[in-house]
């Protein structure tokens, strides 16, 4: 049993090391490239209410990812781009908004339309 726990810990550690470290105090958006690494699609496990100060989103290609960030957080800075993910830092101020007096905070952003399909080109 101790050997199996060590092996599991090693696999999880290697898996999580594919994503760069979060810049503190949060407000990072990571666009995960699903085919870019070892089971990276499994990393996109976010709170459905978007309450965490860091977001892990599936990339929809660099153009749409950049457009989503620029439309919602114009002062954001791209701090990392790699095979597994791209990281944008939204600055130290909390970027979440209050949700209708519930006392909870969450990210809110505009929906960016998808690119035309290959068939429509």
Low-confidence stretches at least 5 residues in length (pLDDT < 50)?
none
β-strand amount: 15-25%
Structural class: alpha+beta
Biggest sheet statistics: 4 strands, mixed
Please trace the helix and strand order, writing H or E for each element: HEEHEEEE
Task: Describe the protein.
The protein is of the alpha+beta class. It is 21% helix and 20% strand. The chain has helices spanning 2-16, 62-72; strands spanning 28-32, 54-58, 77-81, 85-89, 97-98, 105-106. The strands form 2 sheets. A 4-stranded mixed β-sheet has the order 2-1-4-3, with no helix packed on it. Strands 5-6 form a two-stranded antiparallel ribbon. The mean pLDDT is 75.
Can you summarize this structure?
21% of the residues lie in helices and 20% in strands. With 121 residues, the protein is an alpha+beta fold.
Properties at a glance:
121 residues, alpha+beta, four-stranded mixed sheet, two-stranded antiparallel sheet, 20% strand
Question: Which secondary structure elements does this structure contain, and how are they paired or packed?
Answer:
Layout: H1 2-16, E1 28-32, E2 54-58, H2 62-72, E3 77-81, E4 85-89, E5 97-98, E6 105-106
């Amino acid at each position: 049993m101790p050997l199996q726990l060590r092996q599991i810990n090693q696999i999880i550690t290697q898996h999580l090391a594919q994503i760069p470290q979060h810049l503190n105090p949060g407000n990072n958006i990571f666009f995960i490239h699903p085919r870019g690494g070892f089971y990276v699609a499994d990393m996109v496990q976010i709170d459905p209410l978007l309450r965490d100060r860091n977001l892990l989103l599936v990339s929809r290609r660099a153009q749409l990812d950049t457009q989503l960030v620029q439309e919602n957080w114009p002062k954001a800075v791209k701090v990392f781009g790699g095979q597994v993910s791209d990281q944008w830092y939204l600055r130290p101020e909390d970027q979440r908004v209050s949700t209708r007096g519930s006392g909870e905070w969450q990210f809110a952003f505009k929906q960016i339309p998808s690119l035309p399909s290959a068939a429509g080109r």
